[in-house]
Amino acid sequence: MEPQAAMEEPSESQEFAELWLQNLMGQTPENSPWVNEEFPEDLQSMLVQPLFYEVSAEPPQPSTSPPAPTVPVATDYPGAHAFTLRFQQSGTAKSVTCTFSPELNKLFCQLAKTCPVQMEVSSPPPPGAVLRATAVYKKAEHVAEVVRRCPHHERTPENNDGLTPPGHLLRVEGNPRAQYHEDDNTLRHSVLVPYEPPQVGSEYTTVLYNYMCNSSCMGGMNRRPILTIITLETQDGQLLGRRSFEVRVCACPGRDRKTEESSFRKQQEAKNTNKTPATNKRSLKEPTSRPEASKKAKTSGSSDEEIYTLQVRGRERYEFLKKINDGLELSDVVPPADAEKYRQKLHSKSSRKERDGAPEPKRGKKLLVKEEKSDSD
């Protein structure tokens, strides 16, 4: 019996070596005595599966989405697709809930009312493009802050459906595919909707936005002007186009638009009038150079028959200078002998008045003359 056991041991070791080699090579041992009904199923699966797998040679690709800027850019950039915005034409009536002023590039709307914005491109963007809307403060001293709703509107159940974040000012109406995003670095709020091509017979795509807080709310915008930046982006976040406009959320959009437009026009008129005094000063300086030109003309041998114009300020000065001019004109017309006779007559009249003195009064004391003496003397 012992020689037989010694003969069986090498055969079992050879089978184990073959099984180990087969596992290393990734081959399935079909006729191996180790795989039989006596082993559990989980152990059989471990024996059948290879111990090593091929490692992929390609490294993982980094994300192509660019990081959000700390200070967003609000300048218009149409891009290669000529991205533009349109707004429905509406007047300044008190019943208007949303109106846009092209003169101010400003949207006036009420709280939680529909604001349709029309997006237009000259050529279709790549598949998967999105439209992102972000609200930022307009002034430089507030642009670093995040535009949020005020605590009152954020906590009240009105206009809070539970599906959208309560702190977001901007919402999209009627689009279940809208995504509300908060940046991990800047914490800015934005809302994204997939770009939809225009329908047949239309040139633009319309997105309905809602502003969920008033511009005058304490703890929120607090009367600070805001801008809405709408960007056309690829699926990876690459910018294709950008447009921006100012927004005021108020109780009476039509009245506020009319008031701001009138004040804007007055400012423009004031700027234009401030430029005109410079021309007036030049025109006033011009007459001062005319007497010099007249002197040069006289010195050059011009005749006395030439007529000059003198600008006089004030009616009294004008009348006084006019009398002098009339007298000079008369002296030119009257002969010298007659003028001498006229002067002598005037001189004789003035001497008689001095000799005769003033007439005696009818009643009262008598006026004294130099030759007469009083009774007391």
Question: Quick summary of this structure?
Answer:
With 377 residues, the chain is α+β, with helices and mostly antiparallel strands. Helices cover 33% and strands 17% of the residues. The model is unreliable at 1-8, 51-64 and 293-302 (pLDDT under 50).
Give me the side-by-side strand order of the main sheet: 2-3-11-10-5-8-7
Please tell me what the overall shape is. elongated
One letter per element, helices H and strands E, the order comes to HHEEEEEHEEEEEEHHH
Q: Structural class from helices and strands?
A: alpha+beta
How much of the polypeptide forms β-strand, as a percent range?
Answer: 15-25%
- Helical content (DSSP H or I, runs of 4+): 25-40%
Terminal Cα span: 198 Å
Spatial extent as radius of gyration: 51 Å
Mean of all residue-level pLDDT scores: 79
Helical segment count: 6
List low-confidence stretches: 1-8, 51-64, 293-302
Please describe the biggest sheet, giving its number of strands, its sense, and whether it closes into a barrel.
7 strands, mixed
Would you report the number of β strands?
11
